[in-house]
Design a protein that fits this description.
heterodimer; A: 243 residues; Rossmann fold; B: 368 residues; alpha/beta; abc type-2 transporter like fold; 2 domains; elongated
Chain lengths: 243, 368
């Protein structure tokens, strides 16, 4: 689903992403970890077709990140840190809007909207403004909206910020469901316990990938009892901090 | 196309659901017109003046009465001697004193020459100038009438005609000005804010990851404000015609078309500002101080450009509102057709295309 080979991004003299190479399989839940300033966001932007790499190769959903950014955009979903929902639009309006953006037919939008409302048990809130929803529901809705158009990969940029652990767990159930349906999940997160939920995890330090394995494998290699420890052992080496 | 329409729909939802801002956007022009029309005026109407009549004869009485009867002046007080003049001015209510010297009437009759002194409070020089010239005109009229009996060697009779605005109503100059201000505020500032808001909220990112072309996003954002502005223009014109008695002497169609041109220019400016910042507050600040203020100062509607020092005059050529103001004044008040404003229209079109090009280019770069 995602193949990168020495993917690099330089801004002048500064190398934000330094020749990273990895592959993500279809249906995998791939955690993309790293401290602030390590280069996670820059790397993700390249994979989303938002910024052109300086060198290296990469393909997302079979499309080249240099030449086929429009195709990439059509086939991926994205959920930003700030949830990417419009607070002053209703639940239904948000879904209709995003469905329309991805060129889905009216029939599809109608059916899918009904489906999502039922799944998330938001039928009674359908016509309410998103701003009136509690945070956990907004988060789940945001995820559903991100995969509304049934993309093959969805990119989640720190999707669980500011939410309590119970709600985060519920959210991850949704992610599991999506993965089961064959959607590949690429998620960045700060929360190390969430790293445990992923199939495989990569940890970026100063623009390079310093570790890439399943959580169990990483804990073994680093003789650590938790992903927290793994992260600390790696991140301590870092020389860059968030700008 | 469907994509575009769902975008425009969403933008309308945003605007309509923000009731407070919507209220301001629609009511502001009305409030401005009313304030400018009735409260703020640098016209001279029923100004309080005083008369020091040291002659107290038929001629001075007659002239005083004429001055009093005019719409411009109201004689509040009759002074008795010169030492009272300064205290009156200091009190602040009297803006001008008309002094008739002793023997005014008999001088006029026997020597055909008399003097009148006009003392005006020039702490507001514009008002003082206006008052003195109005008063001089009234005196001149009187003199011409009296003169008709006498045979004098040379007389230069000055006849004056105030073209297009015989009543010298201030409204004629500020209605075009208010139009420029309102359009600039709505189109530039609101457009900038709505785009920057999406950046702040994080929804812009999502837009950029989607297959929507950035250009469509921007145009979809501009469309509701375009329509809002047209509604505002209609409101302003209706108010001007029916409440302020300002006529639309030229073609209404031409006026609306030129307004649309100016709207597009302002929208492009808003787009440019939005690509310069990520914060709504900064966008507002740049719009107000960087665009709005120079527009008021340099467009010519509050202060005549011809009176400014040369560097400012040159700078004012870069202010789109200046050209729009000229166009609206010409079309609305003078009633001219396109043939007379084609040059200004061309300049404005050039500005619009330039700004559009620049802002789209900057917008695209900012996204990468």
């Amino acid at each position: 689903m995602i193949i990168t080979e020495n993917l690099t991004k330089r801004f002048g003299h500064f190398t934000a992403v330094d020749a990273i190479s990895f592959q993500v399989k279809k249906g995998e839940i791939f955690g993309f970890l790293g401290a602030n300033g390590a280069g996670k966001t820059t790397a993700m932007r390249m994979l989303c077709g938002l910024s052109l790499p300086t060198s290296g190769k990469a393909s997302v959903a079979g499309f080249d990140v240099f030449k086929q950014t429009e195709d990439i955009k059509r086939n991926i979903g994205y959920m930003s840190q700030k949830f990417s929902l419009y607070e002053d639009l209703t639940v239904i309006e948000n879904m209709r809007f995003y469905g329309g953006i991805y060129g889905k037919s009216d029939a599809f939008i109608r059916e899918k909207t009904a489906y999502v409302l039922k799944e998330l048990q938001l039928e009674n809130e359908a016509k309410k403004l998103v701003k009136s929803l509690p945070l956990g529901w907004k988060q789940k809705l945001a995820f559903s909206v991100a995969i509304f158009h049934e993309p093959s990969i969805v990119f989640l940029d720190e999707p669980t910020g500011g939410v309590d652990p119970v709600t985060r767990r519920e959210f991850w159930n949704l992610i599991y469901q999506a993965a089961e349906q064959g959607i590949t999940i690429f998620v960045t997160t700060h929360y190390m316990d969430e790293a445990e939920y992923c199939n495989r995890v990569s940890i970026m330090v100063d623009g390079k990938i310093e570790a890439l394995d399943s959580p169990t494998g990483l804990k073994q290699s680093f003789a650590a009892k938790s992903m927290d420890e793994v992260f600390l052992k790696l991140a301590r080496k870092a020389t860059r901090t968030a700008n | 196309m469907k994509q575009f329409i769902s975008f425009v729909k969403k933008e309308f939802y945003h605007i309509i659901r923000d009731k407070r801002t919507l209220f301001i956007l629609l009511v502001m022009p009305i409030v401005q017109i009313i304030i400018f029309g009735f409260a703020l005026t640098n016209e001279v109407k029923n100004s309080a003046i005083a008369v020091l009549d040291q002659s107290k004869d038929a001629a001075s009485a007659e002239l005083s009465q004429e001055i009093d009867e005019s719409n411009y002046f109201t004689i509040q007080k009759s002074l008795n001697n010169a030492s009272e003049i300064e205290p009156e001015f200091k009190k602040g209510k009297i803006k001008m004193v008309v002094v008739f010297p002793q023997n005014f009437g008999s001088d006029l009759k026997h020597f055909n020459k008399a003097q009148i002194q006009l003392i005006a409070d020039a702490s507001d020089p514009n008002v003082a100038n206006t008052m003195v010239s109005y008063a001089s005109r009234i005196i001149m009229d009187y003199q011409n009438r009296v003169n008709q009996e006498l045979k004098l060697p040379y007389t230069i009779k000055t006849e004056y005609r105030m073209l297009y605005n015989p009543q010298l109503k201030g409204a004629y100059s500020f209605v075009p000005g208010v139009m420029s201000m309102v359009l600039m505020l709505i189109c530039t500032m609101m457009t900038a804010i709505t785009i920057v808001k999406e950046k702040e909220l994080g929804t812009m990112e999502v837009m950029l990851v989607s297959p929507v072309q950035p250009l469509k996003i921007v145009i979809a954002k501009a469309v509701p404000y375009l329509m809002l502005s047209i509604i505002n223009i209609c409101t302003i014109l209706l108010l001007s015609v029916f409440v302020l008695d300002v006529p639309i002497n030229g073609s209404l169609v031409l006026l609306i078309l030129e307004s649309i041109l100016f709207i597009l220019t302002s929208l492009a400016l808003g787009l440019l500002i939005s690509s310069a910042t990520d914060s709504q507050q900064t966008a507002m600040f740049i719009s107000l101080t960087g665009m709005f203020l120079p527009t008021i100062m340099l467009s010519g509607f509050m202060f005549p450009i011809e009176n400014m020092p040369l560097p400012l005059q040159i700078i004012s050529n870069a202010v789109p509102a200046k050209w729009f103001y000229i166009i609206v004044k010409s079309v609305m008040i003078k009633g001219v057709g396109f043939a007379s404003v084609w040059k200004e229209t061309l300049i404005l079109t050039g500005m619009m295309l330039f700004l559009l090009f620049l802002s789209i280019k900057k917008f695209k770069i900012r996204l990468a």
